[in-house]
Structure formats: structure tokens, C-alpha cells
Amino acid sequence: MHRGFVDERLVFARLGRVVGHDERGIRLWFAHGTPLAVSLSEDGEGIRDMPFKEWTQRRQVLVTKKWRGPNIFMFIPPDRAHSVWWFWGPDGEFVGWYINLEEPSVLWENGALVGVDTTDQDLDLWVHPDRTWEWKDEDEFEERLQFPDHYWVRDAAAVRAEGEHMTKVVESGAFPFDGTWTDFRPDPSWEIPGELPAGWDRPRAR
């Protein structure tokens, strides 16, 4: 389970497959059609469907559905405030990396179910295959910072500093932006479960 929280409140949970886990970190695969739960307003709108001020005034509910975005290969390094996502086009060609700035993930295990818990920090980076890069979602980040009583990011400078650090890693061509895993292909025998497993909504791991 890859789960996102606002403080102790679960707002996102996605089922994935563990591809690998070693001293470099954990690798996860999320296929199109993967079961997930996401926080929406009672009328089915998401946080990006309205100004943040309005979102803070809406009652929110967790809704289970399917991931309809592209396949994602995700790398979560230990004790770092980011994860890196790999994306491919419909023809299988690698199209870029996405650096998701987030609180350091906490791993947990509960019998056969394992997971990582974090809090997304909204500001992100898109990195092209030639390692040129650009900031993403700066407008959302700045808008939400205007509502400190409701926004879960309390140290905006630290978030941006993590992003700036990662741009230097990108420009140097160091791991993981050195071509590692750009040729990854999922095992065709992997099946996608039909629903979230019991325990997906357990309390946050700290």
C-alpha cells in the first residue's frame, strides 16, 4: 500500500507491487487499473477541481475506485523527502522522470500486507529524458501556503530546498537519473487485484 496523509487523516491509498527493496530503497509498480482510495468532496470533486479555500470548507470522504492514469515505476529512497517516478509512452518509450516532493516515507508491515506512508508536499519536478527539468505545481503550492491553518506543508523553504538539491542530482546525471530502470518492463504474469485488501485503512505509521 502506498498511502498519503494529511497529518493523521488518510487521503490517498493505492495498491502496488513491490519490485525490489534493498539499501538503495524500495521500488514499486502501479499498473493502470490498480485499486485505490482517494479523498473527494461529497459531490465527487477533487482538490484540484476548485480553489483551495473552497476545498477546506467542503466535507471530504474516501472513495474507492481504479487508477486511470499511466503505469508508474516508483523509487522511494530511505530517509529522503522525495520519491522518483518513471513514465513510458504507449509504445514503451521512456518519456521522463517525475520527482515527487513529500515527507520521508515510513515503511510498515502487518502480516501479508506491507506499505509506505507519507504526506505529499505538492511542489514537484518533471525531468525529460535529456535531463532538462522544470518545476510543476508551483501555483498550487503558493496558493495553499496562503492558508496556514489548513495547509499541511509547514516548512515551504525545506520543500523547495529538497527540490533544488534534486535538480543538481539530475544535472549531474547521477543515480537514479543515469538510465537505471529506464528499460524496466513488468512481468506479464502479474495480475491486478480487484479491490483493496483488508487493512488498507489502518492508522498512519510513524
Written account of the structure:
By secondary structure, this protein is of the alpha+beta class. It has a single domain (2-172), classed as FomD barrel-like fold, CATH 2.40.380.10. Helix content is 15%, strand content 39%. It has a seven-stranded antiparallel β-sheet. It has a six-stranded mixed β-sheet with strand order 6-5-2-1-11-10, with no helix packed on it. Strand 8 (82-88) and strand 9 form a beta hairpin. The longest helix is centred in the C-terminal third of the chain and has 17 residues, at 156-172. It is globular and about 45 Å long. 23% of the residues are buried. The mean pLDDT is 96.
Chart the SSEs and their pairings.
Layout (H helix, E strand, L loop, with lengths): L1 E5 L2 E6 L2 E6 L2 E6 L4 E7 L10 H6 L2 E7 L5 E5 L5 E7 L5 E9 L3 E5 L2 E6 L1 E8 L5 E4 L1 H8 L10 H17 L34
Parallel strand pairs: 1-11
Antiparallel strand pairs: 1-2, 2-5, 3-4, 4-7, 5-6, 7-8, 8-9, 9-12, 10-11, 12-13
Compact overview of the structure:
With 206 residues, the chain is α+β, with helices and mostly antiparallel strands. Helix content is 15%, strand content 39%.
What labels would you give this structure?
single chain; alpha+beta; seven-stranded antiparallel beta sheet; six-stranded mixed beta sheet; 15% helix
